[in-house]
Amino acid sequence: MLGPIVNAAAVVIFALAGTFLVKGIPERVEEIIKKAIGLSIIFIGIKGAFDNERILLLIMSMVFGAIIGELIDIDKWMNKLGKWAERKLIKNNQAETKHNFAKGFVSATILFCTGSMAIIGSMQSGLQGNHQILFTKSVMDGSMSILFGAAFGIGAAFSAIPLLIYQGGIALASTFIRDLLNPEIIREMSAVGSLIISAIGFNFLSVKEIKVANLIPAMFIPWVYLTIAQYFQG
Predict the structure, then answer these.
(1) 6 vs 23: CA distance, rounded Å
(2) Whether the Cβ atoms of residue 171 and residue 126 lie closer than 8 Å to each other
(3) How far is Cα 30 from Cα 140, in angstroms, rounded to an integer?
(4) What residues does each domain of the chain span?
């Protein structure tokens, strides 16, 4: 739970700083921060992918996982969920203060919870005790929390509550299934997950938008493949 707790704490601290200390951040500063974070994510993702010892399995996982994710269109459903939550929480708030609180809370929650990094990072925390991705996400979310806090007020800080529940739940669930996975499966799943994470970095650089959520199924292909292979090998 260390990764999810640090991530939630970063959101609270930086959102409060944005609310009470920062009056506004220039757009050019916001843009260069995003680029710096994007480069860092690409490095971390590719570095983690080098743990892979079955290159063909990694390629196969990415290809078949992308096909499954695109057919289901996970990205579309995640966006729909976010828009639904925003409509439900904001529609009845007419007062400016209430609107800003709800807007900050919902916008920050959607951004911090619905990304692929939240899912993959939480799984790696639970499976390996590796919190690097969530620590990196904490820096990202902290930077964005300052902006949300400055724009909408203290509502952004409260997004840490659903964030902790969401990521903590995934991490705990991953811990429980860890006994069903051997070290090889965990290593290959994490390598694929790290490669997917690098795609988020490219999105931050605005090189070419990648529907990263549609790549999430790729992380589970090594589990299926290696489990079947071990069964037939006896």
Answers:
(1) 25
(2) yes
(3) 11
(4) 2-233
Whole-number pLDDT of residue 147: 76
- pLDDT tens per residue across span 61-117: 999 999 998 998 887 887 676 667 666 655 554 444 455 676 677 667 767 876 667
Q: DSSP labels for 76-124?
A: HHHHHHHHHHHHHHHTT--SHHHHHHHHHHHHHHHHHHSSHHHHHHHHH
Residue 139 DSSP SS3: helix
**Rg of the chain, C-alpha, whole Å:** 18
Q: Which residues of 97-123 are buried (b: 16+ CB within 10 A; e: fewer)?
A: eeebbbbbbbbbbbbbbbbbbbbbbbb
Say if residues 147 and 26 touch (Cβ distance below 8 Å): no
Name residue, tokens 């995640």: 78
From residue 43, give the alpha-carbon distance in Å to each of 25, 48, 157, 171: 26, 9, 29, 23
In a 13 Å sphere around the CA of 19, the CA atoms on its Cβ side amount to 19
Q: How far apart are CA 102 and CA 156, in angstroms?
A: 8
Whether 198 and 50 have beta carbons less than 8 Å apart is answered as: no
Q: What's the first-to-final CA gap in the chain, in angstroms?
A: 35
Contact 191, 153 (CB under 8 A): no
Contact 48, 196 (CB under 8 A): no
- Closest alpha carbon to 33 in 132, 143, 115, 151: 143
Of 146, 70, 141, the closest CA to residue 110 belongs to 141
